[in-house]
Amino acid sequence: MIAVGLLALVACSSVVNAHTAAFAHGMYCHGGPNPGHDDQNTNTAVAPVYNLPRSQWWFQADRGCDRVPPAPGVFLELPAGGTFTVELAHNRAQTTLSYDGQYTSQWPDGGEHPEDWKGTGNPPGCIPEDGALHTNNQSMAAGTAFAISYVSDISAVTMENLVVFTVLPNTPWKRIATYAVPRDLPPCPADGCTCAWLWVPKGCGEPNMYMQGYKCKVTGSTSTRRLAPAQPPRYCPNFNDCTRGAKQMIATRQAEGNNVEVPQNDFVSYSEVWGFSPGAQNDIFV
Ligand SMILES: *[C@@H]1O[C@H](CO)[C@@H](O)[C@H](O)[C@H]1NC(C)=O
């Protein structure tokens, strides 16, 4: 199955338009890269980062998104012990954040597709109509994650204080994506926390990564627990080899700042073979 996946990756390497973001209130570049202009039709936040210096890939600095926060007082809200929903799409126009949602469908491209959408062949090749999903079918969708840092100033976020707190397996897939929040996440500072949406596709296109910024805050929490410093994840087909506790985002395939080694015959992803259990990460506290 792993060999099949790698073959599929080679077969699909011509697909380069491979872009998806998590759209929701509180995101950076919500209206595109120009502060003061609210573009309903923006896809600035969707482009991945690949082979860039750390100063460029970090929070999409390559396109200036780290300097375009949401409007004051707007946050992605994270209900402690509950869930929050974002819209995975290739353009803001395909979400309910634009045009009263009239261009949305169940899918990230605003189109109609079968429930068992997949590429052609057996085993299925990469989905040809939508390279932006980077997958053959739902089961090959790599999984996406959110991380949180308890600092309000995005320039104070570090690999050690940005902790992965939730993982949603087999995404991106449909537009609506709902993530679980650990019950013990403490409240954020008055000006909010900084969050990141994260994805490392398993192939079907350039092996890039996604790190998209949000201003976020935890609601409904009286927890006094603290997050542990994040450690780099490790490839661990054997569970005993996994990094336990608070983990860093995966930084991979960049010119600088990578924190994982790419295994010979497998993928890098937010999944159990990298120590990320599905759902809320409840082991991230001191
Ligand atoms: C999904 O696609 C992969 C790669 O082609 C294949 O190995 C796997 O069997 C497929 N899964 C399902 C449920 O069809």
Automatic annotation (TrEMBL):
**Alphabetical UniProt keywords:** Copper, Disulfide bond, Glycoprotein, Metal-binding, Monooxygenase, Oxidoreductase, Secreted, Signal
Q: Does the keyword Metal-binding apply?
A: yes
Q: Which InterPro entries match?
A: LPMO_AA14
Identify the main location.
Answer: secreted
Q: Does the keyword Secreted apply?
A: yes
Determine the domain of life of the protein's source: Eukaryota
| Pfam family for this entry, one | LPMO_AA14
Cofactor(s) needed, names only, are:
Cu(2+)
Q: Where is the signal peptide?
A: 1-18
Q: GO terms for CC? A: extracellular region
Q: What's a single GO MF annotation on this record? A: monooxygenase activity
Q: Where in the cell is it found?
A: Secreted
Query: Which family does the record claim for this protein?
Result: Belongs to the polysaccharide monooxygenase AA14 family.
Query: What is the name of this protein?
Result: Uncharacterized protein
The organism of origin for this protein: Folsomia candida
Taxonomic placement: Eukaryota, Metazoa, Ecdysozoa, Arthropoda, Hexapoda
